[in-house]
């Protein structure tokens, strides 16, 4: 089971880099364009995913090591600093944050012993908490990524920006060095 989530984390990292490479080339007008999707602008979709990833890292780093700076994580969680304006004003900073978060996700998966994926843990969830097996929580998290990447693809299509980052096989090689 660990292999599957290792592959998900590698795909996630490489695909997020591709998406941010597109976004870094875009103007503020394109990033903030109102396009029919759940979140109306690409920047809003990206900020939602990044904020969600910080929540997931906060939840799961209580049990396993992601290597992410927990003080930095706490600052973001308490101040909700990821939003469309911040992303477009400081795209290079958020690009680096995205790369660091993706490395933390890989590190988190790497730190979970294979036999622990079926272990139940209790995490904060909404105003309460839930208790689920780790693999189910991770599946929810990675499915969330896929859901919103589909929306970003549609938003890019509507802006006339060619994109195709769906190929999984070339993004899941087993590598020890997670740097891109």
Mean model confidence by pLDDT:
84
Question: In this structure, how is the largest beta sheet organized?
Answer: 2 strands, antiparallel
- What is the topology, as strand order, of the major beta sheet? 1-2
How far the N terminus sits from the C terminus, by CA atoms, comes to: 25 Å
Q: Count of helices?
A: 7
CATH superfamily: dinb family like domain
Radius of gyration: 16 Å
Q: Structural class, please? A: mainly alpha
Name the beta content range: 5-15%
Highest-level CATH class: Mainly Alpha
List unreliable stretches of 5+ residues. none
> Judging by the overall fold, what is the CATH architecture?
Up-down Bundle
Number of domains: 1
User: CATH topology, what is it called?
Assistant: Four Helix Bundle (Hemerythrin (Met), subunit A)
Describe it:
The structure is a single chain. α3 (42-60) packs antiparallel against α7. The chain has helices at 2-24, 28-32, 42-60, 70-79, 84-89, 91-111, 134-158; strands at residues 120-125, 128-133. The protein contains 7 helices and 2 strands; from the N terminus they run ααααααββα. A hairpin with a 2-residue loop joins β1 and β2. It has one domain (2-171): dinb family like domain (Four Helix Bundle (Hemerythrin (Met), subunit A)), CATH 1.20.120. With 180 residues, the chain is mostly helical. It is globular and about 45 Å long. The protein has a two-stranded antiparallel ribbon.
